[in-house]
Amino acid sequence: MKKKGYFADKKHRLIAELVGIPVLALIIYLMISSSLNSSAEKFKLSKAIENLQALSNNIHTAYAATPDYSGMDIDSLRATALIPADMLDKDGNVTNSYGGSVFIAPTKYLNVDNGAFAIIYNGLSKKGCVSLLSTPFQLAGIAGVDIKPIETEIPQTAETKYDKSALPMSEELASTLCEAENDPTNAIIWMFY
Q1: Considering just the CA atoms, what is the radius of gyration of the chain in Å?
Q2: Residue 2: CB partners within 8 Å, gap ≥ 6?
Q3: Cβ atoms 187, 122 nearer than 8 A
């Protein structure tokens, strides 16, 4: 008497196993890959925030007894070890955890030359840009932020489109402002007084 059912014979069972095992392996791979990508993104975000906080705190502390931020540049910050070590690449360039360049320099604020300083995180993916703008965290002395869809350098005057009361932003607003979707070219200008 013949067995009835879907896998009644060895041929059909073997075909099911040959097709099922790779499909199962692919599903497991996709789940692990997604989990790793999510972990990597969370690490980049937490490192970017940690470095931004350390950098702004170090600069505020170093310049607390001075009337302004004149004379401050990347070389002086590097020489006085105010830049967190993990922000410096092997050539001494300042980078953020997303791999983009970082610019730091004084700027004009409330008609005072060198009355503020800016820290610019360039090379942000849309996801990274949105995460940085929408995640709540503390930054002492922040005046506001500006967002650009291209890499940018220090503005001449500290004028921000969004003051500190706009932070953290809603994900919807941040997603609208972080325009560069495919290339990681979004830039956030963090302005401090």
Answers
A1: 24
A2: 8
A3: yes
Q: How far does CA 165 lie from the centroid of its chain?
A: 20
Cβ contact 56:192 at 8 Å: yes
Quick one: angle between helices 10-62 and 126-134, nearest 10?
50
* Predicted TM-score of the model (pTM): 0.78
* pLDDT values of the chain reduced to their tens digit, one per residue, 193 residues: 455 555 556 666 666 566 666 666 666 656 665 555 677 889 999 999 999 999 999 999 999 999 999 999 999 999 999 999 999 999 989 999 999 999 999 998 888 899 999 999 999 999 999 999 999 999 989 999 999 988 887 776 666 788 888 999 999 999 999 987 777 889 999 999 9
For the chain, the structural domain boundaries read: 10-192
Q: Per CATH, which fold does 10-192 belong to?
A: TcpA-like pilin (3.30.1690)
Q: d(Cα 59, Cα 10) in Å, to the nearest integer?
A: 73
Query: Which residue in 84, 136, 73, 134 sits closest to 107, CA to CA?
Result: 73
